[in-house]
Design brief:
- It is a single chain.
- This protein folds into two domains: 109 residues, HUPs (Rossmann fold, 3-Layer(aba) Sandwich); 136 residues, Rossmann fold, CATH 3.40.50.
- The strands form two sheets. Strands 3-2-1-4-5-10-9-6-7-8 form a ten-stranded mixed β-sheet, with helices on both faces. Strands 11-12 form a two-stranded antiparallel sheet.
- Helix 6 crosses helix 7.
- By secondary structure, the protein is an alpha/beta fold.
- Helix content is 32%, strand content 21%.
- It contains nine helices and twelve strands.
Length: 271
């Protein structure tokens, strides 16, 4: 049986256990941060791993209600300090997944919170940005969507497979190609779908994916997903994320996992 750490308000754990497979979440006092905390807590519990919680307010007791529903979850609390971006990036070096809300307490307007892109650019592990419809955040649809069509497809598919197995969810392959301008014809990249199907046959033969090819603007497609999570690669435009990833972060109807390759001990990465 797991050893359970009971965390009381204003009580923090400052030891350094092995967090190499843990889930880390940043929590301020915003509503989206509490959604992120609940998502991270359920995800850590499903993986039977520890949860690292970086709190902006050491006196915040709201998280206790979630922990009471998951009595077997081991949670370690730390203050995020004056530089939460640096604290979360450091934590990503030894975490499997880093979880953020899509907006912080200082960001009340449309768009992303000010911490999301800076953390995403520098994080060393996959980052989940929790946003979207309540049923998606609660994981009620039973679908994991992998957005394919780029050089990061292998790592996107591996993360999607892991989530399908953990959650016993179905897999959807989504390939988006934006409509052409001025009536021109844009050929579909059917090769990306074929490569993904071959990858799945050799890596996860038990999964039979639904394949969706959309010829719409990315934000339209991602805003209409009935999915518990969409997995994307980071891409590589000037701001550190690609077109599909940016559309997902701003418009997806569900949480977004921006997948990263797993580093090996010698500094190489696994795609």
């Amino acid at each position: 049986m797991r050893t359970t750490t009971t965390v009381q308000p204003r009580r923090f754990s400052f030891w350094a256990p092995d967090f190499s497979r843990s889930v880390t979440v940043g929590v301020d006092t915003s509503e989206t941060a509490y959604h992120a905390f609940e998502w991270a807590a359920r995800h850590a519990w499903s993986l039977r791993t520890d949860l690292q919680v970086y709190l902006a307010d050491p006196g915040d007791t709201t998280v206790q209600r979630v922990l009471e529903r998951l009595p077997m979850l081991t949670a370690h609390f730390r203050p995020s300090g004056d530089d939460p971006v640096a604290a979360l990036v450091r934590a990503s070096d030894s975490s499997a997944t880093l979880v953020l809300g899509c907006k912080g307490e200082q960001h009340r307007s449309l768009g992303l919170g000010s911490l999301v892109l800076p953390v995403l650019r520098r994080a060393r592990c996959g980052v989940v940005v929790v946003r979207g419809r309540p049923p998606a955040i609660r994981g009620e649809y039973g679908w994991i969507t992998a957005a394919i069509g780029g050089c990061e497809d292998p790592v996107v598919l591996r993360r999607a497979i892991e989530l399908c197995r953990t959650r016993r969810a179905s897999l959807r392959l989504l390939h988006i190609h934006p409509p052409a301008q001025h009536g021109a014809v844009v050929p579909r990249d059917e090769a990306a779908v074929r490569r993904a199907a071959l990858f799945l046959r050799t890596t996860a033969p038990e999964l039979t994916p639904e394949v969706v090819v959309e010829s719409r603007h990315p934000h339209e497609t991602l805003a209409s997903l009935d999915s518990d999570l969409v997995v994307v690669g980071r891409g590589g435009q000037n701001d550190g994320v690609g077109l599909i990833t940016r559309a997902a972060l701003y418009h997806a109807s569900c949480p977004v996992l921006v997948a990263r390759p797993e580093p090996l001990h010698d500094g190489r990465v696994v795609l």
